[in-house]
Amino acid sequence: MMLDQQLIAQITSKIIARMQEQGTDDTYGSGIFATIDEAVSAARIAHKQLKMLSLEKREELIGAMRQTICEHAAELAEMAVHESGMGRMADKTVKNKLAAQKTPGTEDLRTEAWTGDRGLTLLEMAPYGVIGSITPTTNPSETVICNGIGMIAAGNAVVFSPHPTAKNTSLRTIRLLNEAIVKAGGPQNLLTAIAQPSIEATNAMMNHSGINMLVATGGPAVVKAVMSCGKKAIGAGAGNPPAVVDETADIEKAARDIVAGCSFDNNLPCIAEKEVIAVGRIADQLISYMQKYGAYLLSPEEVKRLIPVILTEKVEQMAAGCTEKPEKSYGINKDYVGKDAQYILSKIGVAVPDSVRVALCETEADHPFVIEELMMPVLPVVQVKDIDAAIELAVKVEHGNRHTAIMHSKNVDHLTRFAKAVETTIFVKNAPSFAGIGVGGEGFTTFTIAGPTGEGLTSPRSFTRQRRCVLVDAFSIV
Asked: How far apart are CA 359 and CA 262, in angstroms?
């Protein structure tokens, strides 16, 4: 008896859905596994094989990783924008190439030595083993590239736990890097992940006995989670970077730099300018120049209409016996994180050309756009009376994250005072915020900026442990 055609179609649809959930043979390989146990086991084998290779060979593997990412930088950028719905392809391409080219390699592992009458002592950087790395949806390929290069340079293998909303981009990056390593003569599966990332899988990875160290790049919740696992942990948390502009600054350059930094990848980088604090009477001139360089100035009425679009109001419970209504508090509407300014403005009926990169507004110091880390190209400007008020407000709205701050000034005393007061990991002077990670500035790059745990801008040495080797009464040749 023949089955009804409709029933056959239903059965076929269910089989396809089940295959998509469980994965087919093409789902796995090149570092991608079905379970955390498999991913960790494969990484541990790869780490043992990596230990047998010389530093020279390790650097060859890193060179192959750099090359393949430069060749696929635009592809990965396009994937990330399409999959996550966030950011700009051109900027993500820059970030991918930046991570490939300016993440340090084995040269970062500098040995210290002491010699004297009693012999020779060496202090060397040794790998931890297998590192569990949790990566964000905002910088999916960039974080995998940067951490992958840095952690392998330090002699480790890595089990990645990508954010589910950027799964395909992250896994594609891992595959490309593994294939480059193997082609260059390195071990298989130095970088691993599972095909279906999830919160449950991340928890399993963090608590797995085969993971020696944890590195989390994301918000406060995930940083707190890795720090409570009882393992060595590095946490790269949130920021709310203020940009202070005083009356001595080159106002036109400051305006151009702030628009460039704030709009870079639609404000997704945690280092990007999130609010501007203008000293004295320069605010009007600054805003005028910012409009010249791609900002649209919102009217007060448009600002009011924008609040319920990009923010969500939190419901606060009244304390027992309290008669006063609690103050309003807000969260971020994730539907607008990393979106173009043109798209955001269209939601309040404002039509602007694609050349507009930033939605600019004048606000008071306690406005939610100032207090919250928006992670979208909406930039509030607050005017204050003098440098003392500017520094005080900037420190307050940075919320003690000690992440990033920016200042435009020609007054060395002002720059010094603000740097000492804000105590951020990155302090950028007279440049766009992205100069702080090496775009148009000197120094190496990283996409794991560990303010909460104190490592700062991570590099291969951050993923090592110190080992001391002592030889007594020998090798002293003086």
From this structure: 10
Q: What is the CB neighbour count within 10 angstroms for residue 220?
A: 12
- pLDDT value at position 323? 58
Q: Residue range 224-229: average pLDDT? A: 92
Tokens coding 135: 């990566």
- Stretch among 143-152, 230-239, 323-332, 371-380 having the lowest mean pLDDT: 323-332
Give the whole-angstrom CA distance, residue 458 versus residue 104. 10
What are the φ/ψ torsions at residue 454 (nearest 5 degrees)?
A: 90, -5
C-alpha to C-alpha distance for 318 and 269, rounded to whole angstroms: 36
Asked if residues 290 and 255 have their Cβ atoms less than 8 Å apart, the reply is: yes
The set of residues, in sequence order, having a beta carbon less than 8 Å from that of 234 and lying 6+ positions away, is 213, 214, 215, 216, 226, 448, 450, 453, 455, 458, 462, 463
How are beta strands 32-33 and 191-194 bridged, if at all?
parallel
pLDDT band at 315 (very low <50, low <70, confident <90, very high): low
pTM of the model: 0.90
CB atoms within 10 A of CB 17: 10
Contacting residues for 305 by C-beta, under 8 A, at least 6 apart: 348, 349
